[in-house]
Amino acid sequence: MAPKQQLEKAAWQWTESVRPEEVKQEHIELAYRIRLGSCRRDARRRNCRGNPNCLVGLGEHVWLGEIDENSFHNIDDPNSERRCKNTFVGLTNLGATCYVNTLLQVWFHNLELRQALYLCHSPRKEIGTGEAIEDDAEFEPQSIFEHLQYLFALLQSSNRRYIDPSGFVKALGLDTGQQQDAQEFSKLFMSLLEDTLSKQNNPDVQNIIQQQFCGQYAYVTVCNQCRRESKLLSRFYELELNIQGHKQLTDCIDEFLKEEKLEGDNRYFCDECQDKQNATRKIKLLSLPRTLNLQLLRFVFDRQTGHKKKLNSYISFPEVLDLTTYLERKDIGCIYELSAVLIHRGVSAYSGHYIAHVRDDRTGDWYKFNDEEIEKMEGKKLQLGIEEDLAEPSKSQTRKPKCVKGVHCSRNAYMLVYRRKVEGGKEKEITVQLPPHLQKMVERDNKKFEEWCMEMAEMRKQSVDKGKAKHEEVQELFNMLPAKEDEHYEFLPVDWLRKWLDDSAVTKPIDNSCHLCAHNRLIPDKICDVKRISQKAADIFYARYGGGPRLDATALCRDCVVEKCRILRLKNQLNEDYKIISNLTRTTLQSHEGYWVGKASLRSWRQLALNQLDGKEDDPDHTDGKSNGEGLNDLHAKGDDEIIGEKDDDEDMNFNEDLVCPHGDLCTSETERRLVSVETWHRLKAYFPKSPEFPHYHSPCVQCQVLEKEGEENETLSKMMANEQKSALLCLFQDKNRPLLIKWPEETDVLYVVSQFFVEEWKKFIRKPTKCSPVSSVGNNALLCPHGGLMFTAESMTKEDSKHVALLWPSEWEIIHKLFVVDNTIKVIRLMSTGEHGTVQLEYTTSPDLCGECREGLLCQQQRDLREYTQATIYIRKVVESIKVMKEGAPELNLSGSEAEEEREECKVEGEKDPDFNQSNGAKRRKLTHPCIGGGNSSTYYKQGIRRSTRHRVRGEKELIVSANQTLKELKIQIMHAFSVAPFDQNLSLEGRMLTDDTATLGNLGIIPESVILLKADEPIADYTAMDDIMQVCMPEEGFKGTGLLGH
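Structure for Ubiquitin carboxyl-terminal hydrolase 48, as requested:
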């Protein structure tokens, strides 16, 4: 038994021998556990919840002893956000902007570029003065270029450990939650920067991009016939190197410059020969830039998947790269040193993380820039480290090749930056000074940072001072808490004591109101929620924190203890009474005298008694004054449905209320009650003194008897009415011999119209006359427009609008007119005329006439509903042979018998492979015929593109929930999840029409609810790891569309 339960049992064990009227003060103190011993701190760490004298384990261990000042606050040291000496500044990742951060760090470390950017002046001028707006003390960057200047200034002179680039990113208009192609961003931003700097007057600023990054090569074509050489000069800002199939950087450069043969259909037109000739073409490097950017094409387009993928193969590259042999002029030395390596961590082209390794040109040290974190490499050496440890999707992991000294290997490097070495020794050191306006802006930001540091430090100090004061208070009061024997005491909520000892919680006034009984004293069962402390400590608590009411020794409630004593004794007696009553109910009554008891109440009386006693025990005084079985008079105020609902719930049922009728009297059904002896009733009555009492001579409710008799008579009348109406309109009920325009007897010139809703409701009544209400009126007004005209044509009533209307023979209409109230008579009239050649021509009109305007509006609304749906169902059927796509419009009509049988077999095989299809009866799909009668020649088929909602799924077919505004590409993604067929392998068709425009919406493609789309899958791809990339491309790529990089 748990300690709490043991303490509970010991506190009330005296009730077994003490009657309620014999309760004394000693019993009350036992119930409130006043004399229980307290626990020692060194002997116990957990609090005894059932012992009000246990003051251990409330959270006091935090305060009793020496405490570190840092435990008094949760504020980090602001100096941890301060930039360390001789270190660089990081950039915050705004979500998925790590690709921007890495390139910004590389460009920042280009000192010539940084100096030129600082010398660039903003085109903004103050209105009316002509002075540069940078001189304004409140200057704030607005354009992309101004944000870049400010960002570089902060990276150079900020006191912060890292800075927020959100101003620059916002100026560019980039989506911070979407990762973009870093190589594309580099190209576009360099182009934007070159265009901006070209408008400057200073030539050193104007041409800095060309001086730093621009090289020149020539496309050289040599005719094999006349040996004439043709050159086409071109500038480049980076070399894009294919790495597929290569292991070394020099191999990639060799492929870039290799000679290409122009033969066959690709022959070259020679101006000298004036004819197409075989030729050779290659690229010759004419000049190389100061900073050489080598783009390693890791992200390539996969023709098989239709999406980008990443090449995770190793490429080795040297720290020193000699490109002299690659230049056309061999006498010019061209040696480069590795300056930066940009890394993409991750196996997918659509996700991952970007990191930059950059060398400081001034010191030669290597640094790893990982957003906010910057790490200096040891020994002035490049260390790629953990960036190469990736979990590959395939089981066979590529082993890293061994590299000689001065050479590095990487399978994640996507961009290499080399700086040309200066001939003749050490290059000239460049000192980059901030312009005055940028210096002011940086100083202003540093001032804000210092103020923030001071504010954080002050908050830390205040928290420490508050914690020290709390420490002294706890040490002063905690030893004062235990109440000694024969000392005045009070009760305090244990939750309040815990919050008082919790430094993070604000100590509120003491609240004892939730522990009070109806007599404004302490509830005995709440003793586990309070602690008994000395009155001296309580005086200090109430003086400092306030609250109340105070609970001292006079708060022990004698009335509650006596009541619980009575309840506990009843619970002990309950087991004995249960055995006696069980034996009494098993014996047959010798006489018909006794009391009526509900069978449900008799089955569950023991549980009802326990629930009642437990309820009184838990809250003996906070009740509404009703015991179990009380409230009989309130039954009259409740409706029949409420009473029945209450009776159905046994847990809420009061004893003997299951035989009470809605009128508060004895129910008429003898199957729900039984007669018990007088002795049994008296024993039950002791537990349920206010339960309904019905002696054996009590008559059942008269009102219920009258209602039952009336109900039986009404059911008989309804059955008779249903049989009469069914006999009179048997063909209408059985849907036989229904009138159609194509089969109209000559002796009949008029048909009548009723709404299909009326027919369906009438059929429900005929089938279940005792449960459904009889139909009284036809309700043809629903078929008419507000102008009183008809909404349907005579032809449409037997075709697409047959679900709205039903046609009746004149004889049936006469019966309808007699049996029901008709608001409007609607007729279809046949007019016969003789043509020029004696042929009989038929024409159909309606009465009332068709309202053309409303009819057109109805058709438009129906078409709009088919094009503007949401959460509608369509069906995707996977097929194997292409013949199904070509002849999908009406397969049963186009195929021969053998072909149709073969198609059914194929569908069967496909369906067996479909785990989501479950059809137990294996029935074949039914043909959907035109709702007409009379001969097989007149039967037609619905188009397969439209299905009723009650359709049966075909094997190999799955349901998808779609909306009209989603694109075909999004639908293909859903199909990929359902059939495991990649979008690029899907060939979709609707009614023989191929669906190819991935950007078109389903509504524009004519896909309506209940459509059946045929799916023919191409051969599956061999590399299923590519599916990881496809899963992430649910929306079309937009790249940098709409951003500042493209002039928006």
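The mean pLDDT is 79.
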